[in-house]
Amino acid sequence: xxxxxxxxxxxxxxxxxxxxxxxxxxxxxxxxxxxxxxxxxxxxxxxxxxxxxxxxxxxxxxxxxxxxxxxxxxxxxxxxxxxxxxxxxxxxxxxxxxxxxxxxxxxxxxxxxxxxxxxxxxxxxxxxxxxxxxxxxxxxxxxxxxxxxxxxxxxxxxxxxxxxxxxxxxxxxxxxxxxxxxxxxxxxxxxxxxxxxxxxxxxxxxxxxxxxxxxxxxxxxxxxxxxxxxxxxxxxxxxxxxxxx
Length: 245
Description:
Blueprint: E1 2-6, H1 10-32, E2 35-39, H2 46-52, E3 63-67, E4 69-71, H3 82-91, E5 99-101, H4 109-120, E6 127-130, E7 153-157, H5 160-168, E8 181-185, H6 187-191, E9 195-200, H7 206-214, E10 232-236
Parallel strand pairs: 1-10, 2-3, 2-6, 3-5, 6-9, 9-10
Antiparallel strand pairs: 4-8, 7-8
Helix pairs in contact: 1-2
């Protein structure tokens, strides 16, 4: 059962997601002496990360963070690099205290995916922060998504709708400039997280939200898989919730 919450605006949505996630991190540290999390990137995560790094009473030296995805061949200095995004919005604000395992897909992506898979296999994930795409993707698992692979990280080909979203959000000057492949955390690995917090603002995501929440669980709508997860919280604003029944 997905806990759907409609917040007044994007700022409140981000603050709420950070508060919920911070509470889960604190609980994990109290219970186990450590916490493992998954962090995401993109326009949907700006406000969440801003609030998360400012959350009080978290010993970030006890936190290990994994990263959802990165473009194949992407240098960390490129403005669209997700590693750069998280370095600036997550690692640096925390003073480097958190242990971070970035997705580096500059060279030999298959080998890098296997290495990351071996690393995350040693961690139980307490909370996954994520969003969904305009094409209903979860991480870079574009439709039709692979719901069956047990590999934690996989090399995927990005569909045109996904690439157009990246261009539309201003990360790239043209569709041709958007890479065609990425390393992505797999669907099954995401579902292993104890808590998933999905931040999904903006009207352009409204159809994807409807497909994820009110349609059948279907690889053609990858985020629909969250219907099978025991503890997912989906945070919407009035625009992204506008097509829900």
